[in-house]
Amino acid sequence: MFSCSNKNELFKETDSFVQSLQTEYESYGFLGNKYSKTTSDGLYSITPFGRLINVKIQQIVSSEEYEDLKEDLENHYQGDPRVNRVYICQAGTIMIDCRN
Asked: CA-based, 20 to 30 A from 6: which of 13, 14, 55, 81?
């Protein structure tokens, strides 16, 4: 449903947060909302929380869309030692786990 260009921008934003947890921040703490980013098309919001990065699709979509996005993010971060895992949390959004 979503184009590659949308995901390229999403990956760029998530990469920036992942990198900043290695170089700039120990943790974003509980007030990560002030660092939130939204892709230029408004489709994805990315919010850091501690050493987790939350990715939310800003439209009403099926759980399959989140499964597809999770797989895309897993493939993107496969072999990246900065990321422990990518998973769908109980709230239904995606978390990128960068905890030590």
From this structure: 81
